[in-house]
Amino acid sequence: MDKVINCFTKKPDAVARLVCFPWAGGGSIHYARWGRVFNDSIEVYSVRLPGRETRAKEKFFQNMQQIVDEIVEALLPALKEKPFAFFGHSFGAMTSFAVADSLKRLHGLEPVHLFLSGASAPYSEMRIGAPKRSELTDEEFLQWLSSIGGTPPELLANPEVLKLFLPALKADLHVVENYRCDRPTRPLLSCAVTCFDGKQDVPHDLQAWKEMSSGDFTVRMLDGDHFYLKDSANEKVLIDFITKHLETSEMDYL
After folding, report:
1. Which of 105, 120, 140, 188 is most deeply packed, by most CB within 10 A?
2. What does the alpha-carbon distance between residue 117 and residue 51 come to, in Å, rounded to a whole number?
3. In what order do the strands lie in the sheet with 42-47?
4. Is residue 226 among the annotated active site residues?
């Protein structure tokens, strides 16, 4: 499991686990650090995908099913131990949903809460009609990347860093842009769902996520652009909100 999951702070007595899924091109460090910020009741697992960090020499995954299969195999024993929740931003929102769907269908397990950020639901018309960024030229891609914020300008201006960074980002975007999911005719899950988004980000079809689960549905908008969650004040809001909802959940768990 250590290859796929980064856990900075082991908390064997935690009442729940929060599994965090990276944004496109992202590694595991940002969320793994959350393990030191959350209190002792919540243990944080951060997903590490191929092609980055300690897995830099591994080939990128080509489709969502490969990602789901690896994460489910790595996490399944741990997820049977105690209640768990998922957090995913942008590409991570899609992968967390795909993993939750697979866990429910194949293993009868589901999170007690899904925290989804910065993304339209996979079956929404807004998302399906969006342009495919992974097909842009490098110049067009960098212009788009600069426009959404969150990437330091000095990184965008450094060719050597970009050579390392862009392949992972484009590979993840290729996966998510080719991921298809039919609009559910009935809820796939029964857990609570909370959607977060930056007020200055491009609009996302957050309401479409409501169809995914029969549980409570909430939307929280925070100041900022696509990477609003990197702001320290917003990060505190997220962590406080997640802590409150995990600690006060009834957490019925079979």
Report:
1. 120
2. 23
3. 5-6, 42-47, 16-21, 84-89, 113-117, 192-198, 217-222
4. yes
pLDDT in tens, 108-136: 999 999 999 999 999 998 888 777 777 77
Domains and CATH numbers, the chain: 5-248 (3.40.50.1820)
Residue 46 half-sphere exposure, CB side, CA atoms within 13 Å? 20
Residues in a beta bridge with 224: none
Asked about 90 being catalytic, the answer comes back as yes
Encoded tokens for 66:
């490969």
Give 139: exposed, middle or buried? Use CB within 10 Å, 0-12, 13-18, 19+. Answer: exposed
Cα–Cα distance between 37 and 25 in angstroms, integer? 23
**Annotated catalytic residue within 28, 46, 90, 120:** 90
Per-residue pLDDT tens digits for 21-53: 999 989 999 999 999 999 999 999 999 999 999
For every residue of 213-249, DSSP letters joined together read BSS-EEEEEESSSTTGGGSHHHHHHHHHHHHHHHHHS
